[in-house]
Specification:
With 156 residues, the protein is of the alpha+beta class. It has helices at residues 21-35, 46-58, 106-121, 137-141, and strands spanning 3-6, 9-15, 60-66, 69-80, 88-97, 124-126. It is globular, with a radius of gyration of 16 Å.
């Protein structure tokens, strides 16, 4: 895991643990509002909490911290490919850095750790970007990704 010194504040990257849900859940509410869909993306109930715990313990949930406080996260699932179960895919679910830390290196550090985790545990890494993200497509491409699909959403 990486630690970056930035203006006398250290940003560190680590794997999430179940106790992080106290911080993650309010951040997911904010993320859901940012997502901007008709239906709330994040529904706070026991099923959602259990699902998040499963991702933390069995998949990939990485947190960025500054001075010991959470400032962002990236999350993904590692599963066999549906057509060819002989290889695994790390599929990004969400990537979030709170607004006051978007100009730090936290997002980049999260992305690099996500990629490293995928290289160690999967054969493919799939990644999506929201239309409203401040991250530019060329930033993702320079890390070895290639554009294979464009995703669309229809709210019905």
């Amino acid at each position: 895991m990486e630690i970056l010194k930035e203006k006398s504040c250290a940003i560190s990257i680590r794997r999430a643990v179940p106790n992080d849900l106290r911080w993650i859940i309010p951040e997911l509410r904010t993320f859901s509002n940012f997502y901007g869909t008709k239906k709330n993306l994040f529904e706070e109930n026991q099923e959602t909490i259990d699902s998040l715990l499963g991702v933390i313990t069995d998949h990939v949930f990485i947190i960025a911290e500054k001075n010991g406080e959470g400032i962002g996260f990236i999350c993904g699932l590692i599963n066999p490919h549906i057509y060819n179960r002989s290889f695994k895919i790390l599929t990004e679910l969400f990537w979030w850095v709170n607004e006051q830390n978007r100009n730090s290196k936290a997002g980049l550090m999260l992305l690099k750790e996500f990629i490293n985790t995928g290289k160690e545990n999967a054969d493919w890494i799939t990644f999506g970007l929201m239309e409203t993200t401040p991250v530019k497509e060329k930033s993702i491409l320079k890390y070895g990704f290639k554009k294979m699909e464009t995703n669309f959403l229809m709210e019905v």
